[in-house]
Design a protein that fits this description.
By secondary structure, this protein is an alpha+beta fold. The chain folds into five domains: 182 residues, Orthogonal Bundle (Isoleucyl-tRNA Synthetase, Domain 1); 206 residues, Rossmann fold (3-Layer(aba) Sandwich); 177 residues, no CATH class; 216 residues, Valyl/Leucyl/Isoleucyl-tRNA synthetase, editing domain (Isoleucyl-tRNA Synthetase, domain 2, Alpha-Beta Complex); 62 residues, Ubiquitin-like (UB roll). Helices cover 32% and strands 17% of the residues. It is built from 30 helices and 31 strands. The strands form eight sheets. Strands 22, 23, 24, 25, 26 and 27 form a six-stranded mixed sheet that branches. Strands 2-1-20-21 form a four-stranded parallel sheet, sandwiched between helices. The protein has a four-stranded antiparallel sheet with strand order 6-5-7-15. Strand 1, helix 4 and strand 2 form a beta-alpha-beta unit. Helix 21 packs across helix 22 and helix 24 runs antiparallel to helix 25. It is globular. The N and C termini lie far apart (73 Å). The model has no long low-confidence stretch (mean pLDDT 93).
Length: 961
């Protein structure tokens, strides 16, 4: 807006302008901060407060952790924050003790990348970014309890992240009790003989290394050799999300290889059933629940052992959900990483068996060469690429044969990359007649097919004549009789049950449940993350550090980058930044185990960026507690379970749907472990989840496809031009790289924060995406200007309301608005709440004089959405209390209903009269009035009445005889 005063501004010096809005907003933000307006008292501890407030119904509202980016916020970022803030304010005004706080998820790769490029310590750049974001968020008037804010990089915070890791490390999952228990309980079982050791020896005869290996097989946090995405060009392991479909790194476009590295894992799979079952009681969007169910991927089937011919001690174990098709298995496939061909003794023979099909060898002289070459080829592909429905199937024969246990047939064993080691057993029995991928592979390698599920579509039972596989879960089983079991004639479900029983009786299989969910890879070869509170002794045994040694703080290093290698050299291993600090890595410590000071080596990987966000809801509750994770009374008060919330958790969690399976699943896992160990009463972190939509913006691109500054694009006759050249327009994300970002600072400077808040809430339903239009922001600015004029004389600056009672029409307009806005605010329908407030404000604008009760109610109605101007007007109206804790208006029921309702009177289905009647009119009275109407009498023409249908108060239908 222009800085030169307009004629209107000169004539109205006390008009609501951007400059006045800025002054008002800064003043009230200072007031709220100085008076601790948003402080929510705890029932105990150092944040305990007013007992009367604590006795109120409580609400705990949260936004998903923001990452403090150097680019700062654009107007799309605060959409959820403003909504949660308005919702929190509404609940404070309806008598609740509301906890609403915001911290920062500050570990992560961007700060580390910036450090590598500039030499700036990640903490320096991150803290600078946090301060910038705090200023931007403060300017929006967000009502957070500042005492409860923190960043995950604070040692006082990540001390407890490390402590939780140790709780998980020192735990195991007791399947009989269906919960986690301390590892000490397991040790006691081994020591007493209640539980046998794997090889049957007494616990006392096992060495320290052997005991550690046994316990690692049970611990909920354990180190193991795990397949990972290794990127030599970046010198680090990458998450699946950081690898493109082409098997290259998103950053730098380097090749990514599959490699086995010693990594920390979380045994989240132990909680698969509970993570699945407890979804039912959560108030989450069904789409998010479905994503989690699919990610966990529970499937019932059978484990079957296929002995390997010529190898008495070897068997290919498969998990299948179609054990009814065992007689149709004509070959087997191993994942390239399968231990039978990758590690130790191998089933791969020295030479090709006689009669091996040339297409099976891949052109190699020996099976060993073929398998090694194929494994190297597969290592260069990502899991996504391997699972893609490629037209050409690849693989090689291993030279080995397995024995089908139901019929004794020898079937060839292949290795192919469409089978993943991360799912099931890393091996499949291929039934090509009834599985599309197996069908395509069998066709490519000229492998036999056998129909064992009778087609119901008339194609016959000869797969060689088919165009694709026949898949059915409700068809007769055929060609499935062997020496021990016959399935012919059974339907699928019956056949599954029979063959599973037979496999179990023969000791070659059993019914089992499998999950798509894999254990959580918890190591990163980076600097800017939480150090592990783990040290290794001279035998390589991992030891937990005692609580007194926490936190393990990140040491200073000169080089923040991991060592990089030849991008195409897969035979390399990571060298982490922490490993270069010899003084930090190799230490002499007394762990308090009675063995005195010893020499140890620290873990040099760091935790993933998910670690800090797995439990931050608990830190908001008790942020300054240095003695324990959280005061139990405080945790029960804010998050404890009750009838409507059986697993406990945060009352409302607002954030993007993109975190459906990673963050949300990990946080649920940590909560369940902490609950099992007795540290918290809630077994779920977030009871209600709400996914806000996205604010989108138009992206303009020139003829080269390069984005141009959106603010400099001109529209002429429906076309768009940048510097005179035509450009294309497409609605998309908002961001700096797309040159279409609008910062909240710009809008606040132009109109004020309250206008921005109102506009974002009025744009549309909160859970859908909507396009940003800077030109439309002025509409909400004008709403605030009209509200201001309804209370303040723009010429004098004095309050202009009158001490008078509203007329009946105004009372009806007021209480209808109050009733509707209350319902909308409670339902997070902020766009319709703004519309109803606008309608009431427009009604008030037309009054010659504004009665004080109406003005005050209007101010209170808009307070959660536009808190600064509401505070200012409330104070000018003569109140010395903050509007934040004023009661929200309540409607008078007598004025909410319409004074009269139009009733339609029909004769023979045609409208003959209309009556204005009271909404609560009785049916008998409405019938009497309808029959008395002259037009009705004329329409009847003296005919007798067969029936009168009355639907009070809106319809009377008269049916003549």
């Amino acid at each position: 807006m222009s800085e030169t005063p307009s004629a209107a501004d000169v004539a109205a010096p006390h008009r609501y302008t951007a400059a006045l809005a800025a002054a008002i907003e800064a003043r009230w933000q200072d007031f709220w901060e100085a008076h601790g307006t948003y402080q929510a008292p705890n029932p105990s501890g150092d944040l305990a407060g007013d007992p009367e407030t604590v006795a109120r119904p409580k609400k705990f509202f949260m936004d998903m952790f923001p990452y403090p980016s150097g680019a700062g916020l654009h107007v799309g970022h605060p959409l959820g924050y403003i909504a949660t803030d308005a919702y929190a304010r509404f609940h404070r005004m309806t008598g609740h003790n509301v906890l609403h706080a915001l911290g920062f998820d500050a570990f992560g790769l961007p700060a580390e990348q910036y450090a590598v490029q500039t030499g700036t310590h990640p903490r320096v750049s991150t803290e600078t970014n946090i301060r910038n974001m705090q200023q931007q968020l403060r300017r929006l008037g967000l009502g957070h309890d500042a005492r409860r804010s923190f960043a995950t990089i604070d040692p006082d915070y990540y001390r407890w992240t490390q402590w939780i890791f140790l709780q998980i490390f020192d735990s195991w999952y007791d399947e009989e009790a269906d919960r986690a228990r301390p590892i000490a309980d397991l040790v006691e079982q081994f020591a007493s003989g209640e539980r046998a050791t794997p090889d049957g020896r007494p616990w006392t005869e096992l060495t320290a290394v052997e005991r550690a290996d046994v316990l690692a097989g049970y611990r909920l946090a354990y180190a193991s050799d795990a397949p990972v995405n290794w990127c030599p060009g970046l010198g680090t392991v990458l998450a699946n999300e950081e690898v493109t479909a082409e098997g290259r790194s998103e950053r730098g476009n380097y090749p990514v290889f599959k490699a086995k590295l010693r990594q920390w894992n979380m045994r989240i799979t132990a909680y698969a059933d509970r993570l699945l079952n407890d979804l039912d009681a959560l108030d989450w969007p069904e789409a998010i629940k479905l994503q989690q169910r699919n990610w966990i991927g529970r499937s019932e089937g059978a484990r079957v052992d296929f002995p390997v011919a010529g190898h008495p001690d070897a068997a290919v174990t498969v998990f299948t959900t179609r054990q009814d098709t065992l007689f149709g298995a004509t070959y087997m496939v191993l994942a390239p990483e399968h231990p039978l061909i990758a590690d130790g003794p191998s089933i791969v023979p020295a030479a090709w068996p006689e009669g091996t099909h040339a297409a099976w060898t891949g052109g190699h002289a020996t099976p060993g060469e073929a398998v090694a070459a194929y494994r190297k080829q597969a290592a260069a592909k990502s899991d996504v690429e391997r699972q893609a429905e490629a037209k050409d199937k690849t693989g090689v024969f291993t030279g080995a044969f397995a024995v089908n246990p139901v019929n004794g047939e020898q079937v060839p064993v292949f290795v192919a990359d469409y089978v993943l080691m991360g799912y099931g057993t890393g091996a499949i029995m291929a039934v090509p007649a009834h599985d599309p991928r197996d069908f395509a592979f069998a066709r490519a390698f000229e492998l036999p097919m056998r129909c064992v599920v009778e087609p119901t579509d008339g194609r016959g039972t000869d797969p060689s004549a088919w165009d694709d596989a026949f898949a059915s879960y409700d068809a007769p089983i055929v060609n499935s009789s062997g020496p021990g079991v016959s399935l012919d004639g059974l339907r699928v479900a019956e056949a599954k049950a029979r063959v599973t029983q037979w496999l179990s009786a023969e000791g070659i299989g059993e019914g089992t449940v499998n999950y798509r969910l894999r254990d959580w890879l918890f190591s990163r070869q980076r600097y800017w993350g939480e150090p592990f509170p783990i040290v290794y002794d001279e035998d390589g045994v991992a030891h937990a550090l005692p609580d007194s040694m926490l936190p393990v703080e990140l040491p200073e290093v000169e080089d923040y980058a991991p060592r990089t290698f030849d991008p195409d050299d897969a035979d390399t291993t990571p060298e982490t930044p922490l490993s270069r600090n010899e003084e930090w890595v190799h230490v002499e410590l007394d762990l308090g185990d009675g063995r005195g000071p010893r020499r140890f080596r620290r873990e040099t990987n760091t935790m993933p960026n998910w670690a800090g966000s797995c439990w931050y809801e608990l830190r908001y509750l008790d942020p300054r507690n240095s003695e324990r994770l959280v005061d139990p009374e405080v945790e029960r008060y804010w998050m404890g379970p009750h009838e409507a919330k059986p697993h406990g958790g945060v009352d409302l969690y607002v954030g993007g749907a993109e975190h459906a399976v990673l963050h949300l699943l990990y946080a649920r896992f940590w909560s369940k472990v902490l609950h099992d160990l007795g540290h918290i009463s809630s077994s779920e972190p977030f009871h209600r989840l709400y996914n806000q939509g996205m604010i989108q913006a138009y992206v303009y691109r020139d003829r080269r496809g390069i984005a141009v500054p959106a603010a400099e694009v001109e529209e002429r006759d429906g076309a768009y031009f940048y510097q005179g050249e035509p450009v294309s327009r497409l609605l998309g994300k908002m961001g700096k790289s797309l040159r279409n970002a609008v910062t909240p600072d710009e809008i606040c400077a132009e109109y004020g924060a309250d206008t921005l808040r109102l506009y974002e809430m009025a744009m549309g339903p909160l859970d859908v995406s909507r396009p940003w239009d800077t030109r439309a922001v002025v509409g909400q600015f004008r709403l605030l200007q009209r509200l201001w004029r309804n209370v303040v004389d723009e010429a004098t600056g004095e309050v202009s309301v009158v001490e008078a009672e509203p007329d009946e029409a105004t009372l009806r307009a007021l209480y209808k608005a109050v009733d509707g806005v209350r319902q909308d605010m409670a339902g997070m329908r902020f766009n319709t709440a703004v519309a109803k407030i606008t309608e009431l404000n427009n009604h008030v604008t037309k009054l010659r004089e504004v009665p004080r009760p109406v003005a005050e109610a209007l101010v209170l109605l808009i307070a959660p959405l536009a808190p600064h101007v509401a505070e200012e007007l409330w104070r000018r109206l003569g109140h010395d209390t903050t509007v934040v804790h004023e009661p929200y208006p309540v409607a008078d029921p007598a004025y909410v209903v319409d004074e009269t309702v139009t009733c339609v009177v029909q004769v023979r289905g045609k409208v003959k009269a209309r009556l204005e009647v009271a909404p609560g009119i009785a049916e008998a009275e409405l019938e009497r009035l309808a029959l008395a109407q002259p037009a009705v009498t004329a329409a009847l023409g003296g005919a007798e009445i067969r029936k009168v249908i009355v639907r009070a108060p809106k319809l009377v239908n008269i049916v003549p005889a």
